[in-house]
């Protein structure tokens, strides 16, 4: 979405006004600014146009008091069918009960006649700037949720409070550590700490994350039955709306300390197996040829015996 003065030129508006003079003059001004302008003379016509063009109308500017169907009644009907575009009410009155009814419908703005046309456009720009940033925040939140969902499927994830008490662990955490969730929740995270890990490493970790920074490093942990496992860990602070640290989230990926050695060993084993199989095939071929030669020799010997007996 474009920002500032470019917003209005991309929008379509429904303008509802029962005064012919006001409606005609305002329509000219609106058409000079908006992409498309739908004009209605009362709430009933406005309701019809909005239903007909519900996918095209971005904002509604409507008078409150009108014949056939008031602006409030029109918007109430629109809300019933989930048409929730922003609405700006205009009225010559500032009755408190009227304003209360308007607020209950979730109206975006309210202007008292006569109002400044430039002020109207400024308010519309602000409305759509706010909508733009709300959509942006929702998209970022959705992307973050999808990212966390992906991590939850491939990584060892846990969440703690500021004292290190476990508040959440995912299934992979339980699978690797050998603990059930009930055995972990509420416990200190050092339940999986391996005694080989020095205190200085954890002192550095806590100092880093309590300062609001991200800690990364290799960690040796211990399973429930005492086996060791190694992880590449990333620990991030979690903040509340006041930018206060309220906990930490840990994201870890399994590694092996001697992964390179194991990889070389596996290569050597595979090469040896391949060499052995090749030798086995060669040996079997040689045995097969030898058997064929022996059979041929036996046939010749049998023929010679038969000839001499004859």
TrEMBL record:
4-aspartylphosphate: residues carrying this PTM: 63
What's in the keyword line of the UniProt record?
Coiled coil, Phosphoprotein
GO terms, biological process: phosphorelay signal transduction system
Query: Gene3D superfamilies this protein is in?
Result: 3.40.50.2300, PAS domain
Segments forming a coiled coil: 273-307
Concerning PROSITE patterns, the annotation shows: PAC, PAS, RESPONSE_REGULATORY
* A Pfam family the protein falls into: PAS_3
What InterPro entries would the database entry show?
CheY-like_superfamily, PAS, PAS-assoc_C, PAS-like_dom_sf, PAS_fold_3, Sig_transdc_resp-reg_receiver, ST_Response_Regulator
Name all PAC domain ranges: 213-267
- Domain PAS: residue ranges: 140-212
Q: Where is the Response regulatory domain?
A: 12-128
Task: Spell out the NCBIfam families in the cross-references.
Answer: sensory_box (TIGR00229)
This one is known as Uncharacterized protein
């Amino acid at each position: 979405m474009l920002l500032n003065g470019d917003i209005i030129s991309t929008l379509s508006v429904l303008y509802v006004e029962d005064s012919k003079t006001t409606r005609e003059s305002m329509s000219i001004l609106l058409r000079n600014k908006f992409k498309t302008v739908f004009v209605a003379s009362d709430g009933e016509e406005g309701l019809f146009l909005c239903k007909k063009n519900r996918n095209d109308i971005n904002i509604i500017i409507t008078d409150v008091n009108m014949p056939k169907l008031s602006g409030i009644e029109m918007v109430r009907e629109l809300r019933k069918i989930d048409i929730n575009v922003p609405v700006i009410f205009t009225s010559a009155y500032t009755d408190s009960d009227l304003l209360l009814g308007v607020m209950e419908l979730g109206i975006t703005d309210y202007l008292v006649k006569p109002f400044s046309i430039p002020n109207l456009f400024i308010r519309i720009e602000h409305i759509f700037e706010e909508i733009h940033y709300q959509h942006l925040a929702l998209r970022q939140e959705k992307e973050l949720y999808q990212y966390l969902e992906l991590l939850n499927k491939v990584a060892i994830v846990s969440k703690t409070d500021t004292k290190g008490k476990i508040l959440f662990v995912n299934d992979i955490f339980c699978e690797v550590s050998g603990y059930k969730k009930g055995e972990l929740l509420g416990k200190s995270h050092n339940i999986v700490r391996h005694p080989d890990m020095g205190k200085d490493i954890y002192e550095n970790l806590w100092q880093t994350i309590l300062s609001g920074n991200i800690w990364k490093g290799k960690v040796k942990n211990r399973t429930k039955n005492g086996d060791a496992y190694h992880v590449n860990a990333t620990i991030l602070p979690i903040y509340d709306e006041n930018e206060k640290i309220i906990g930490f989230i840990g994201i870890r990926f399994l590694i092996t300390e001697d992964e390179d050695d194991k990889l070389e060993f596996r290569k050597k084993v595979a090469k040896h197996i391949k060499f052995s199989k090749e030798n086995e095939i060669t040996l079997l071929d040689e045995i097969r040829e030898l058997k064929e030669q022996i059979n041929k020799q036996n046939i010749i010997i049998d023929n010679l015996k038969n000839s001499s007996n004859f």
